[in-house]
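Tokens for chain A. Residues wanted.
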């Protein structure tokens, strides 16, 4: 009972810290956006849809909770994470557009020249701790302490993945540099850079000590990113866009089994391709 009480207190503290950080972040973004809106009248918007692939840095995962009444508190060091882009589904199942790792954006131009924008950005990504790794595990399960190399995966101590989405939600500030300012009909490039911050709402599928749970969607952390690339106008309003993105994601309280939690953070590199359409007014 004491362990359970201590664990609940720890969860509450994590939750409070996360809410405070997100509140500060959203207040800053709102103030920035409000200032931008006050200075610039909106001059149109754009919509985008596309797909992505990711690479992740290694990370340390911290698991804490209890499975079937047996408490655990351990860390897995230097775990390798991979994505699952399913890009072959674009050709094999073209009507099921949400099978691959996808992206959508809704942007609002802030000036007449369309060189500045505020963008709402969602990246549906997947993160999987690679099976059959041998990782250094330190901590306790029940009353046993250990510090040893251990296999993880389907037949190991744990399996961990955000496979119905690591799910990155951003608000981006976007700066464009149109390369054709006089003839805007078609056939020109627009380089860009994007700075963003936001949060993650993953759906974590996890197994610990043989017990599995495919969790619910849950606000689990915060992130920041920078993105660069260019779009090319095929027609006057239709364009294709290719960008590269890098950032840092900190999952402070991902859900596990029997009310347990996991935390980890990683850097990532993402390649994104989208199609888009301008709506002018």
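Reply:
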């Amino acid at each position: 009972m004491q362990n359970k009480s201590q664990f609940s207190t720890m969860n509450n503290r994590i939750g409070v810290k996360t809410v405070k950080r997100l509140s500060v972040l959203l207040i800053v973004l709102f103030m920035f956006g409000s200032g931008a809106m006050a200075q610039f009248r909106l001059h149109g918007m754009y919509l985008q849809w596309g797909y992505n692939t990711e690479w992740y840095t290694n990370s340390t995962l911290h698991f804490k909770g209890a499975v079937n009444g047996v408490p655990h508190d351990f860390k897995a060091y230097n775990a390798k994470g991979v994505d699952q882009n399913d890009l072959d589904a674009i050709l094999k199942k073209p009507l099921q557009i949400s099978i691959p790792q996808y992206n959508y954006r809704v942007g609002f131009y802030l000036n007449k020249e369309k060189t500045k924008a505020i963008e709402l950005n969602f990246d549906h990504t997947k993160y999987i701790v690679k099976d059959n790794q041998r990782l250094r595990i330190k901590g306790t399960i029940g009353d046993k302490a250990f510090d040893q190399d251990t296999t993880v995966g389907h037949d190991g101590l744990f399996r961990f993945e955000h496979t119905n989405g690591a799910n990155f939600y951003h608000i981006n500030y976007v700066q464009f540099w149109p390369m054709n300012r006089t003839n805007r009909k078609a056939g020109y490039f627009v380089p860009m850079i994007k700075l963003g911050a936001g949060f993650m709402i993953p759906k974590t599928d996890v197994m610990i000590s043989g017990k599995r749970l495919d969790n619910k969607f849950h606000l689990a952390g915060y992130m920041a990113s920078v993105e660069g690339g260019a779009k090319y106008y095929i027609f006057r309003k239709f364009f294709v866009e290719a960008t590269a993105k890098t950032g840092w994601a900190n999952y402070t309280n991902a859900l596990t089994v029997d009310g347990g939690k996991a935390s980890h953070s990683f850097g990532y590199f993402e390649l994104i391709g989208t199609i888009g359409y301008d709506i002018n007014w």
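The first helix runs from residue 2 to 39. Residues 1-16 have pLDDT under 50 and may be disordered.
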